[in-house]
Amino acid sequence: MRLATIAVSRLALGKLFARVCSISVLVLCFTCTSFASANNSIPNIFKPESTPADEIHTISRFTLTITGLIFLVVFSLLVYAIAKFRRPGAQDFEPPQVYGSNQIELAWTVIPVLIVLVLFLATARVIHSIQEAPQPAAAVEVIAVGHQFWWEFRYPGLGVVAANELHIPVSDAGKPTPTFVTLLSADTDHSFWVPQLAGKTDLIPNRRNALWMEPHQTGMYLGQCAQYCGTQHAKMLLRVYVDSGENFNKWVANQKAPAVANADVAAGRRIFEQTACINCHAVAGTVADGRFGPDLTHLMSRDTIASGAADNTRENLKRWIRNPEEFKPGSLMPAMNLSDQDLEAVTSYLETLR
C-alpha cells in the first residue's frame, strides 16, 4: 500500500512538473515576443498594426488571461494538497469524504459552464466583427491568387497587376481606407498570413475566401504561406507595403504605366521574346502574355525576386535565370540554358522594367 501511495504521489508530481514547464515556456515566449524589436520586418503577433489583427490580439490576451487564472487556481490547490496532506502514515489516513455534496457538484458544473460561455460569446463577437465587416466605398479591392510558389496580386478597380509584394494604403481614422482581399488558388491549398495585419486565411481551389486589413502605420510587413503547398512552401514569402495615401497613388501610377522600351537593350528584349519566357510571364506592350509566372512589366520596382527568396539585384537576377534551383529547389521555373552573352543581354533588358 505504501509503495502504491508513493508511486501515485510521484506521478502527480511529474504531471505537476510538466504543467509548470509548459506554462513557463508559454510565459517566456510571451515575454520575449512582447519585448521584441519594433522593426516590422520581424513578424510579431503581439504587436498588431491593423484593426482585424488588433481584435484577434485582444481576444487572444483575454483567453490567455482566463486560462492562466484557471491554471493558477488548479496549481495552487495541487500545491496546497501536496503540502498539507503529504505526511508519514498517510496511507492509513482517509480524508473527509465529499461524495454527493450538492455544493461541490454545483460549483464544478456551473463555474466551468460560465467560463466557457464567456469565452464563446467573446470569440463569437470578434469573429462576427471581422467576417461581417462592411466594405466602405473608399476601400481598396485586391484579388490575391496563390501559385506554386508565388503570389499574384490584382487590383481590379485600378488596373494593376503585381507579384509577391502587396502595396496597400494606410488607413486614416478620419477617413478609413481598408483593403479587402479576395483569396483564390491556382493550383493547391495555400494560406495567406501577415501576422501583424490580419488573421491566417486559406486559399482553396474552386473556393473564394476573403479577409481585410486596415493598417494604422506605414511600413513593410512580412507574411508567409502558412499551409504546406509543396517543395518550396517555406520560401513562398510575401511582403505587404503599407504606403501613405500619396505614395500609394504614386505606386499605382507607376504600375499602370507601360513597360519601358529602351533601344539600348533591344537585343535582350528580342531574346526574351524568342524563348519560352513568354509562355509563363507577361510584359505589357510586348508579345509576352503568359499567366503561369509573375507579371514582369515592372519587375525592378520590387525589392525581391523568387517570392522573397533573394534580393532583386543584377547578380541575383542572372543567377535566377541561369538556374532557379539555386535559390528554390523544386521551383517550377525551368532553366533557360542561355549562353553567357544572351544571359547578359536578357538581364540588361529586365533591368529596364521599372
Short description:
This protein has helices at residues 2-34, 51-85, 102-131, 245-256, 266-274, 277-280, 314-322, 340-350, and strands at 140-147, 150-155, 160-163, 165-169, 179-185, 190-193, 201-203, 209-213, 219-225, 237-243, 304-305, 310-311.
Q: In percent, how much strand structure appears in the residues? A: 15-25%
Ranges with pLDDT <50 over ≥5 residues? 1-14, 20-39
Strand order of the largest sheet: 3-2-1-5-8
Helix content: 40-55%
- Main structural class: alpha+beta
- How many distinct domains? 3
Question: How many helical stretches?
Answer: 8
Please state the oligomeric state of the protein chains shown.
Answer: single chain
- CATH homologous superfamily caption of the largest domain: Cupredoxins -  blue copper proteins
| Major beta sheet summary | 5 strands, mixed
**CATH third-tier fold name of the largest domain:** Immunoglobulin-like
Compute the number of strand runs. Answer: 12
> Architecture of the largest domain, CATH level 2?
Sandwich
